[in-house]
Amino acid sequence: MLQLAQNSVIRIEAPEMNGLYRVIAEDPAYPDTFLFRLQEAQEEEAGQSVAIQKVPRALLEALPESGKLERIELVSAGKHLLPPERLSERERVLYEFRRKVMRRFLDARDLTRSYYLTGGIAPLAKQAMADTKCARSTVYSLFRLLCQYGFDSGSLNPRFDRCGAPEVKRPAGPNRCKAGRKSNAELLGANSDVVQPGCGEEWIARVLAADTKIRTPKPRFNDRYQIIIQSFSPGYRQTDQGVERIPPLKGTYPNRRQVRYLLNQYPLLKRLRQSTTTGHFNRNIRGLRGRSWEGVAGPGHTFAMDSTIGDIYLRSQVNRAWIIGRPIVYFLVDVWSTAIVGFHVCLSGPSWDMAKLGIFSATASTDLLVGLWGVEGDVWSLNPAPGLPYLILGDRGEYLSAGASETAISLGFNFDYAASYRPDMKGMVEVLHRIAKDQQYFFVPGAMDARRKEMELRIRKETSAYTLPEYVNYLAWRVQLYNLHADRNHRLDTTMISAGVHPSPAGLWRFGFETGIGYRKETATEKLITHLLPLHSGAIRRDGIFLGRLEYRSDLARAEEWTTLARHAGAMEIPLHCFPGSLRQVWTPHPHSSGLLELTLSDQAIAPGNLSVDEYLDAQMYQSRMRADLEHESVTAMFHALERIEAQARRAKILTRAADEEYSGAKPTITEARQIEAKTHDEGIASAMTATQASNSSPLAIAPGNEMSKRSLQYAGLMDQILGGLAP
């Protein structure tokens, strides 16, 4: 049996009554039902009066059996659902007046009684006009709103949002004047031969077509306007300089204001996309589509890795007067907890070899890192210490390298990358780079802020003061402070709050592992060293074990006399794994087991252990650069020495030839000549000693010009000291 009630909505598909109807009055005591036909969206609503149809109930009751009548649920417009307190002041005043006018119409009993007793709403309309002093047309207009949108007070809400016909185009044309106010010239009554016409459909089409041909990102409006107006040129003309466009006549093209208005009709999202490239839009302008930790199981599951150039100039440990440039800083961040789990500082360009060192810093033991870098205290302040993750999110260049695939397969982790030019896909580590740069600007000597344009905030590189280990210590302290005290209150849910989780990255990290959602894969230190640290070729020579010119020692090598073997069998090549940030120790495969043998830097090495490989190479390059100058100095000194030697030989030959020519007597033998030479030498020494004794009694005993006697005396004294010291 059909059950109808006042304000119900039904759909009738009978040929004579096809459409939607709202029940206005229904009383089982009477044989008829009063219905109002609802206007659909495609029907013109203006100019029609309230048409209520009186339909026999018997006819309506027969329709459901044939499937031609059904009750439906109408969803009201959003504005009609607003309560009075959410209306504006102006809307609320009008709403209260309307509700007062239609007070009796909202009472279902009064409305039903009026229809069944009088056949209409005339009595209710007269009472409403008497109570509120309103016009009859106002009552019937408001009654139509109730019939169309429902018999409740929300249907009387003002619809100021529909005023002005939003999004309805009014292009100028033969039958429509230019929209908007008159120009100032027209208001002042000035006579003008040409009046700027309004934008008609033809102009609109030409402007939009010309704008479509302009490549994205669109240029500035002035340049954009000039390109668009070129399409309104009537043609070309030949001049002495060549072919040129004919400028359009006044009034035959839209002005700047009209073109700007047409371009602003594009939706906001489309205008944003037109203003920049697709990559920049996706990185910096698009709306946030989710959180970085969505889909991450827990701490230790996914590490995001990225590198940046540090905004600081470093000094060399070899000589602090040397500026060695800006470092490359790698950060590894746990995506779920946002904790920093590893970082590496180097002077070489970004590459997979350097990225592996960042992974090494996140997975190696804390004691090993402290020994290599020389930092103070716990590096990460995380409990438990980080291990190998399930997934590492890096850059595309690193991902496509063969070394990355081999390392991932060997150590047992997955490697993925973000799309090209999309750093926002691992935005957490990008933000940490920015935070680190912003914070170090006011604390690190020589730091610079590349984003600051003011000259007074730029720091000259000459003011730098930190060496590489000192900068690493600074970053380690910053990492500890960040992991322990960065505010993560927005990440705490009710479960974390009840468990007393500290709102910091370290607190989230610890909570994840305590609840069993953390991922941590321990890997032997020897395996990390083998697969993550760079491999170099060393040499076992007879004078020691060397990596380049650096000497390393080991108790095992000394006990097994590796240098003795190299002395007799020849130098031997040996593989050495080295941490580039420190020269303190290297590792080589153990000759008698499956582990690694640690070699420490010799005390007699040419470089200290706290020096990095890059700084050591810098010193070697500086020395090699000076080698040419030193060689030139040596050649120059040798050249002068040879000249003196040759000059002395020439003088000796001349003197000898002159002596041979003057000598006429018999010549002594070699033995006799040596005896005569020795006797002459002894007499010279004796005379010098006599002169010395005389000088002790009288300072004038030795003539000032007797220099030979002085030299002989000094020579004799030195010989006496030497012979006396060697005597038994």
Most strands sheet: 6 strands, antiparallel, barrel
Helix-and-strand structural type: alpha+beta
The coarse silhouette is: elongated
Specify the CATH class of the largest domain.
Alpha Beta
Strand residues, percent: 5-15%
- CATH architect. name of the largest domain: 2-Layer Sandwich
Task: Give the radius of gyration.
Answer: 50 Å
Low-pLDDT runs: 44-48, 439-444, 446-458, 698-709, 722-728
CATH topology of the largest domain: Nucleotidyltransferase, domain 5
Q: What can you tell me about this protein's structure?
A:
- By secondary structure, this protein is of the alpha+beta class.
- The protein folds into 5 domains: 9-161, no CATH class; 197-278, no CATH class; 296-514, Ribonuclease H-like superfamily/Ribonuclease H (Nucleotidyltransferase, domain 5); 534-611, no CATH class; 670-726, no CATH class.
- 42% of the residues lie in helices and 14% in strands.
- It contains 25 helices and 20 strands.
- It has a 6-stranded antiparallel barrel.
- The radius of gyration is 50 Å and the shape is elongated.
State the main characteristics.
alpha+beta; elongated; six-stranded antiparallel beta barrel; 728 residues; 42% helix; five-stranded antiparallel sheet; Nucleotidyltransferase, domain 5; single chain; disordered C terminus; 5 domains
